[in-house]
Specification:
2 domains; elongated; 13 strands
């Protein structure tokens, strides 16, 4: 199915009206989006019938009362103030890659072989903060969509859902391998799934060494949760020695779970993440996989080095602001020392019968929770990457904090996650 056929089908099918994510925006932002697309219509100095038809469908989808003629007039004689408003809007617009997808369709409608998407690159990236890698990803996505339409014999509704599903667009936003929580301003790093050897011979409780296959990509906090981030979500600081960029401590496992729940609710409510995703604690296997460097692991004894003191605050007098030591292979800080980090899992004396897929090993009746990474109170030996210990679910200590992940929600048998 080529671009012209796709445009024809989109223009003749009401499915788009129910699925375009820009419908969620307010009226003013919908108009700015359409003005921006109108500018793209005139990139090759000629406005084509198919472009007009496609824009007309979007106007209908967004329930905008203005006519396509007014947008064509704007494309021919753009108002400088509105152009400035459009550019500023797109700088902050979280669906800017969706805008580019729509714009590329406009540009390719009657000029498929002319590489007109590169004109868009020159015009658009010069005036917004979109990077070359984002354009490359977008064009790659378009190619994948077109190829899969032929290969998988997708029906039109399936194809449009693949292109416009809000969840898919969110994935596009996240595909640059980084993420910042808008509520807490926490930074996240993308972790690709993979297989690793979990466990260590340095501690009896870390045996037997066994292979674990992490089957799903996720995002992990670049740092442990700080006091400032905790305050933004929960509203108060539980720490005795208060300092915003130090890791939060004096929190129980239940407090950490509540933080994740609250942050998820706030971000979903604000449409910052899809409802199919959540913030949560890492499983113990995920934590060790990341501490060992994930798919980039160099096999260090500590998280990022064979010298524990270059990557972590250990055998020290108190916690320190996050990010002051060297990161590990994934770019994660403070996986060794500073505060020990709570995981989802219950404590088990060793890894006998541990899950091989990296999932949470939890039993509601157990009251002890695993924590990992060592802390400022621990010796260098107790901060080895395979070292593990435990604490009661409801107990708080000044050397224990937590780090969180952003991931797809786990679904029960028989349920379906629309993101997968």
């Amino acid at each position: 199915m080529g671009i012209l056929e796709i445009v024809d089908d989109i223009c003749n099918n009401d499915f788009l009206i129910e699925n375009h994510p820009v419908k969620e925006l307010d009226f003013e932002n919908k108009m700015l989006y359409l003005y921006g697309l109108s500018l793209m219509m005139n990139v090759d100095d000629e406005i084509h019938a198919k472009e007009i038809e496609f824009l007309e469908v979007l106007i209908k989808a967004f329930a905008v009362e203005d006519t396509v003629e007014s947008f064509i007039e704007f494309a021919k004689n753009p108002d400088k103030k509105i152009v400035c408003d459009v550019i500023n809007f797109l700088k902050d617009f979280e669906f800017k890659k969706l805008f580019l997808f729509d714009a590329v369709i406009l540009l390719k409608i009657d000029n498929v072989e002319q590489g007109c998407e590169h004109k868009l690159l020159e015009i658009f990236t010069a005036k917004t903060d979109l990077l070359q890698r984002d354009i490359d990803k977008l064009l790659e996505l378009i190619n994948i969509v077109m190829v899969s339409a032929d290969k998988d014999k997708l029906t039109l509704p399936q194809l449009i859902k693949k292109i416009y599903h809000p969840l898919h667009i969110k994935q596009m936003i996240l595909d640059d391998k980084s993420w910042i929580s808008k509520k807490s301003q926490m930074e996240f790093i993308f972790v690709e799934c993979g297989t690793f050897q979990m466990g260590s011979n340095e501690q009896t409780n870390s045996n037997p060494i066994h292979e674990v296959a992490i089957s799903t990509d996720f995002w992990i906090g670049k740092y442990p949760v700080t006091q400032g981030e905790y305050i933004k979500v929960i509203g108060y600081n539980p720490c005795k020695l208060k300092f915003g960029t130090k890791p939060v401590e004096m929190v129980s496992w239940h407090d950490a779970i509540n933080f994740c729940k609250k942050l998820t609710e706030q971000e979903v409510f604000a449409n910052n993440i899809p409802k199919e995703m959540e913030y949560r604690l890492l499983t113990e296997a995920e934590w060790e996989y990341c501490a060992k460097g994930g798919s980039k692991s160099a096999g260090y004894k500590y998280s990022g080095s064979d010298d524990g003191k270059t990557v972590g605050w250990v055998n020290y007098s108190c916690t320190r602001p996050v990010g002051q030591k060297e990161p590990n292979e994934l770019g994660l800080y403070d996986m060794t020392g500073n505060v020990a980090e709570l995981c989802q899992d219950n404590w088990h004396e060793d890894y006998t019968n541990a899950p091989a897929d990296g999932s949470c090993w939890h039993n509601e009746s157990d009251t002890y929770i695993v924590y990992r990474g060592g802390s400022y109170t621990d010796s260098v030996t107790s901060s080895l990457v395979g070292y593990r210990s435990y604490v009661k679910q409801d107990i708080m200590y000044p050397h224990i904090g937590f780090r969180i992940a952003l991931a797809l929600k786990k679904v029960e048998l028989g349920e379906k996650n629309e993101l997968t």
